[in-house]
Amino acid sequence: MIRVDKPGGWSDHGRGLTAARGFTLVELVVVMSIVGIIAVYAGAKWQGDLSFYSKADQLVNDIRRAQALAMSKGGHTIRSVASDSYQIQDAAGTAVDPQPTVLDRVQIGGFSITFDGRGDPGAANQDVQLTQEGQTVTIRVVGNTGAVVRL
Q1: Whether the Cβ atoms of residue 137 and residue 56 lie closer than 8 Å to each other
Q2: CA-CA-CA-CA torsion for 86, 136, 146, 123, nearest 10 degrees?
Q3: For site-directed labelling of 131, which of 7, 17, 56, 69 has its Cα 20 to 30 A away?
Q4: pLDDT tens per residue, range 101-132
Q5: Distance CA 113, CA 32 (A)
Q6: 78, β-bridge pairs
Q7: What is the layout of strands, in order, in the sheet containing 101-102?
Q8: Nearest one of 37, 39, 32, 4 to 20, comparing CA atoms
Q9: DSSP label at 109?
Q10: Hey, what domains does the chain have and what are their CATH numbers?
Q11: From CA 119, how far away is CA 121, in angstroms rounded?
Q12: Which helix (H) or strand (E) holds 40?
């Protein structure tokens, strides 16, 4: 049997007129719109989580920076200076950077970690907690080794 497409999307397969299979442009646009709305909502939630964890990673990197400065120039301390900021100081207590580092909308638990010339923070583990909108991250500086890990 020869297939002949009729105007209007109808085909004759020898058994009468039947509707051609497929999706209309309107159906595709509606589905793509729904998928787009879901993607925007999920992306915003995901981006918010990434922003908080990237701030935690920034603090981890700054703790490692304080440790590296201590090993190259003598003892250095990193400490909180407000509920949302911290600063690196040299052995004399002078700030390394002119302004404290501020983690916007993140609460930082009070902390002070001093590294000696070998990068050793002392015998005890030292924890720093960051909190934002019910999420909490703990950063631990392991005693005697100076390893910095995000828990």
Answers
A1: yes
A2: 100
A3: 69
A4: 888 889 999 999 999 988 889 888 899 999 98
A5: 52
A6: 88, 113
A7: 101-102, 85-90, 76-82, 112-115
A8: 4
A9: -
A10: 29-150 (3.55.40.10)
A11: 6
A12: helix 25-73
Nearest residue to 109 (alpha-carbon basis) of 142, 78, 82: 82
Q: What is the pLDDT of residue 37?
A: 83
Amino acid identity of 105? Answer: R
Q: What are the pLDDT digits (tens) for 60-115?
A: 999 999 999 999 988 899 999 988 999 999 988 888 988 998 888 899 999 999 99
Structure tokens at 49: 């989580």
Tell me the C-alpha distance between 115 and 66, whole Å: 8
Host H or E run for residue 18: strand 17-19
Tell whether pTM > 0.70: no
Select from 64, 99, 68 the least CA-distant residue to 81.
Answer: 99
Distances (CA, A) of 90 to 7, 87, 94, 144, 145: 82, 10, 6, 20, 20
d(CA 64, CA 78): 10
